[in-house]
Here is the input.
Amino acid sequence: MKEKIDYFLKKLNTLPRCKIDEYYRWADYIELKCLTNKDGFYSQNDFTDDIVQPYEDLGEGDLEDLQNTKKLTKPEKKDKWDQIAKDSFRVIESRVNLFDEYYPYSLTENNLAINFKKDISINEKLYLFLLLCSNLRYTIKFKKELTGCFEKACKEVVEKILPNNSEVHLFGSSNTENQSTRWKSAKLWDKLIWLSEFLGEEVRVEEKEISKYDTGDRGIDIVGKTFLGDKLSSFPIYFAQCACSPKEWPVKQASIKGDKWDRLISLATYPNYLMFIPQSFRDSTGDWHDRTNIHKTIMFDRYRILKNFINKTRFNKFSSYKIIEEIISNKASIF
Here is the structure.
């Protein structure tokens, strides 16, 4: 565990791979730096100081929009980074109000710095869990635990928002929620058989058309249905995708669309499409950062997940819970 945490701390010396105007991602970076500082304090000046050297060390092709600013004079560069800091802290200011009891940070009176709270609650640890899931560039050593627990948390949310007469299962190949009780093996073919029976549909391909080495899930991480009192077809069904990568999730939305799955199994009705991301995909006004990236899916970002994850007693049994506890107890700025 210590080696993984040390890697996490060292990796935070590198910049996030994001665009200049992706202030919600810069805000995450600021929160991570504050989390790992021994004094639990991080300011706009700390931010600009920390990113100057990594920025100067950027290689050709790294963060292209930042590379384009290298032609600026030193005063112009300083103004540019100061503005990024201000805009990112505006996002943080909006998060203080938006997340309320879930937010493990507080702003100083002048809004120029944040403090990590002491004795944080289970709600605030949930926020940190999603923060770590959002930034696998830094938490890559914990990827398996984080992504697996993220899917479990999203399943809890789906169960909460659906009617009581619903059934929800993890379907993703990266998770291990008693899969042996639902299909014979990890092979995609066996999953298709199970899914067709679960939905009361028919498989439209032959076993020979699916590679025997294919153990994937074709994009569905969570599947659900709502019972309507009989065994007939044409009932509500739900396909959900859980994506931690801030760059990949817009494309991954296509993986759960009915037109794609209708080639594999019959579908009497179109599924309801749910997209789960751990990012707080919001600007300083609380609106979506870029609504054009949401492609007719029901979007669950950090806020919506937190507001609809109500079974907190299960969270402290997640393997990721121990990771959060270890990071908090090993706070240090020694690198």
Q: What stands out?
A: The chain has two domains: 2-142, 144-323. The chain is about 45% helix and 10% strand. Confidence is low (pLDDT under 50) at residues 176-180. The first strand starts at residue 41 and ends at 43.
